[in-house]
Amino acid sequence: MKKRALSEALSAGSYPGRGIVIGRSEDGTQAVTAYFIMGRSTNSRNRIFVEDGEGIRTQAFDPSKMVDPSLIIYAPVRVLDEHLIVTNGDQTDTIFEGIKSGLTFEQALRSREFEPDAPNYTPRISGILTFGEGDFSYQMSILKSLDGDPAVCCRNTFSYDNPPAGEGCFIHTYARNEEPLPSFEGEPERVTIEGDIDSFTSSVWESLDPDNKVSLFVRFTDLASGKSETRIVNKNQ
């Protein structure tokens, strides 16, 4: 698969939905994680990211406008020992508890499938970074219907060892902005990772469709020290 600029991949469509980017910084010293959410409905757009311990959670910006919290309020990012977990739904908790009980990332997700939001059947996308000895590896997963058929759940997991500097992988929920929304297709896109945490965060945020973007989380984790820096951007302030 040909690598392209992350800004190009993000701006290629008006509604990629929710997206995860994982990779390594240009200088090779940082593990990079990003997660963004977008929304078309008032309910989806009425959200912000807030810090929650070592992770984050979604929260209603205006609680009086919240209609149905079931698929939009969750913890997208959690940390367990040497693992950083990032997902687009409450399967973050499923992975967290599964690994805690001795399951692998893939095994933990066997109990889950795509979201029950017919007719879109939004895919569940997940990622996990595993740190150790000054380096890291990562995995990404997508659970989706078969061309919109809810009778079939397609389970794809992708594993990446020794990620190269200045490069990452990008996976998102929707292939195109159509009705119903078609699921992401193929393997995660290879994309460039450029700049420090602030320039990277700015580039990602500015590349997302201004009408549909809602919130962005970015974390750079120093591989030598294990210390991390986090940036959160919310359209609702």
What general outline do the C-alpha atoms trace? globular
Fraction of residues in helix = 10-25%
Total strands: 13
Sketch the topology as an H/E string, one letter per element: HEEHEEEEHHEEEEEHEE
The fourth-level CATH homologous superfamily is Inosine monophosphate cyclohydrolase-like
Total individual domains: 1
Distance between the termini: 38 Å
CATH architecture: 4-Layer Sandwich
| Estimated structural class | mainly beta
Sheet with the most strands, sense and barrel status: 6 strands, antiparallel
Q: Write out the strand line-up for the largest beta sheet, numbering strands in chain order.
A: 11-10-1-2-12-13
Tell me the strand percentage band: 35-45%
Count of helix runs: 5
Specify the CATH class.
Answer: Alpha Beta
- The low-pLDDT segments are none
Radius of gyration based on Cα positions: 16 Å
* Mean model confidence by pLDDT: 97
CATH topology: Glutamine Phosphoribosylpyrophosphate, subunit 1, domain 1
